[in-house]
Amino acid sequence: MDPRFAALSARLLGRVDELAVELARRVRAAEAELAVVPPDDITAVCAEQLTLSLGHLSGRAEISTASTAANARRRAEKGVPLAALLHSYRVGLQFMWESFVAEAGSDEHAILIDSATEMWLGLDLMSEAIRGAYREVEAERGRDREMAFDALLGTDPVRIRQSADALGLPHRGRFHVIAAEPDAELPPGAVWRHLPTQRLAVLSLPGNAVFPGLRGGRYGVSPAYEQISQTAAALRLARLALAAAPEGEGVSHYGERPVATLIASSLETADDLAQRVLGRLLDLPADDRDALLATAHAWFAAGGSTAGAAEALFCHRNTVRYRLGRVKELTGRSVDHPREAAELFLALETHYFRR
User: Fold this and answer.
1) Which of 28, 95, 223, 317, by CA, is between 20 and 30 Å from 36?
2) How far apart (Å, rounded) are the C-alpha atoms in residues 193 and 303?
3) What CATH code would you report for 3-140?
4) What are residue 305's phi and psi, to 5 degrees?
5) Per its UniProt record, what Pfam families does this chain match (predicted)?
């Protein structure tokens, strides 16, 4: 570094208190987001950062970003946006440059251009330290939020209330739990938790508010509940609603698809019972098996109408009657008998569930 520039930096270092007051004034005027920080605090940080920069430029100290990172952490915890803090440091660099120009004699102006790179390097190092500190604070907040969300699903009433406070949720009101696919969008204002296979959210709504529209994935929504301590139970219902939701995009509110929800609540048991009900039908060659299953499924979908099933399958009504007779022969259950028809319907719904 040019010794003349170092000497010029040393002269400014001797005026650091005076310069800090003016720099703090400029920072406050240039960045409204820093209004949450007391003026004395801003002045103290300006003095600290000027001392750090001018000490390095004068050759009296090695460059260090520890104090810059510490300041950034305090600002992040205070809620100052990252862009606002970075802007304040750019204001600081501009002020330093103007101070150098004002302090330099006519014979020293040339050395400022040659030494400007050192000033920009210092700003780059500080900016990276600031971004790193903000990333750390955000990661810590994310972990704290996850821990609070998990505690919300526990059984300890004290921890549940503390978690609700930490997440900004009331203790009583109108709540819904939303379970969604990992990439699904969640409504504004929802308190969410991102898991590897699902996104979970608790939504607090004013009494008369309409439930928001959900788009961009599959969603399961719990019934409304009034006490935040009921969130764990609501989560189970939201997950069942999601499991019962049709493939593709759509919203399934718990209770809207009772048969699919019943199957999803114990899929292993449902599969076992479906195989027992359908019995020998499932052992047929694939083409025969699929034709009989599709016919029975179409008959139920048509509300028990043979003509409606035939139209849906593009076949004759007699073909539908014949195939339904084969279903009865192989399963021992007739679509004309209410209880047997109900068993067949549940078995078919289970067979086609998520297929």
Assistant:
1) 95
2) 42
3) 1.10.490
4) -95, 120
5) HTH_30 (PF13556), RsbRD_N (PF14361)
Judge whether residue 316 has pLDDT over 90: yes
C-beta of residue 57 within 8 angstroms of C-beta of residue 118: yes
**Cα 296 to chain centroid, rounded:** 43
What tokens appear for 39 in the block? 């003026």
- Cβ-contact 238, 177 below 8 angstroms: yes
Q: Could you give the CA distance from residue 139 to residue 347 in angstroms, rounded to a whole number?
A: 48
For residues 85-105, give the mean pLDDT: 91
Segment 192-211, tens digit of pLDDT? 999 989 999 999 998 788 89
Q: Do 3-140 and 266-352 come out as alike in CATH topology?
A: no
pLDDT reported for residue 340:
93
The domain locations on the chain are: 3-140, 169-256, 266-352
Q: Domain 266-352 belongs to what topology?
A: Arc Repressor Mutant, subunit A (1.10.10)
Cα 65 to chain centroid distance, Å, stands at 32
CB of 254 within 8 A of CB of 240? yes
d(CA 66, CA 32): 25
Q: What percent of the chain has pLDDT over 70?
A: 99
Please state which of the ranges 22-31, 71-80, 145-154, 206-215 shows the lowest mean pLDDT.
206-215
**What angle do the packed helices 66-78 and 82-103 form, to 10 degrees?**
140
Which residues, at least 6 apart from 302, have a Cβ–Cβ distance to it below 8 Å? 308, 309, 311, 312
Average pLDDT, the chain: 91
Q: What does DSSP say about strands 250-253 and 218-221: parallel, antiparallel, or unpaired?
A: parallel
Task: Please compute, for residue 204, the number of CA atoms within 13 A of its CA located in the half-sphere on the CB side.
Answer: 15
Choice among 7-11, 135-139, 223-227 with the minimum mean pLDDT: 7-11
In Å, how far are 89, 279, 330 from 326, measured between CA atoms? 81, 12, 6
Q: What is the pLDDT of residue 1?
A: 64
